[in-house]
Amino acid sequence: MDVLRPKTVPLSDETILWFEFLLKPNLLTAHLVNSAPDPSPTELITQFLSIAPGNQDATEPNSPEADSMNKNEGLKYSKKQLALKILALKVAAFLRWDLDVLEKELPLQKQIQLLGDLCSVTAGKAVNLPLSLVHECPIIGPEGSKHSLNFALTLYHRWVLRALMLRGSVAKIAKPFGIVPGVTDATQYSMRDDSFINFLEPFTNISIDFLNQVISDPEPFRVLTYDTFVALDAHNDGVQQRFDTALVISNAELRSQIHYDLCLYYLYAQKYELAKQNILLAKENYDLMKQEYSKKASKTFIYCRVEEAQLQGYMMACGVAGGPLGLLQRLNESVMEHYAGIVPILKEDNIKREIPMTQRKILELNVEGYVSMGSPEAGTSDQKELELAVVALNVIRHVLDGDNILGSNVALQKYRQQQLKLIELMLQYADEQFEEYSLTDRERLKKYFIQTLSLLGNSNGAETILKNYQKLVSLQEFEDLKKQKTMEDVQFTGIGIQADWAVCESKMLRLEVGTYERQLITCTHASGVRKMLVKLAGTNPTKPLWSINPSWSIPVPMKQLLMSLQRGFLQDFAYILVGKSRELAAKKDYSAAIALLTCLKSETTRQDLANNPLVQKLGKLAAWEALLIQIQQVLDEWPKKPTDQVQFLRNCKQCLNASSNNDVSPRPKVLEHCAVMLLNFSDWNSLLNPDKRYPALELCFAVTQAYLDIEKFKGTKKTSREAWDLILPMFINQQTSRQRHAADNTAMLQLFLSKLREPLVISIVLSLLARLHNILKDETNLDINAEYMFLWPTNVSNPAVYNIKMVAETLNNLLLQSLKFYPNNVPWIKLKGDLEFCLGNYEAAMRYYVTALISGSEYCTIHLQRPLLDDFIVRRMIKCCSNLGCFMQAAVLCQFLEETDYGLAFKSISEKTASFSDAMDSYYGCIWDPTLLEFIVNWHFKKGEHKRRLQAISYLGQLELNANNNEEIKREAAAIRKTHFLRSLAKQYML
Question: With helix as H, strand as E and coil as C, how does 369-425 read?
Answer without folding.
Answer: HHHHCCCHHHCCHHHHCHHHHHHHHHHHHHHHCCCCHHHHCHHHHHCHHHHHHHHHH
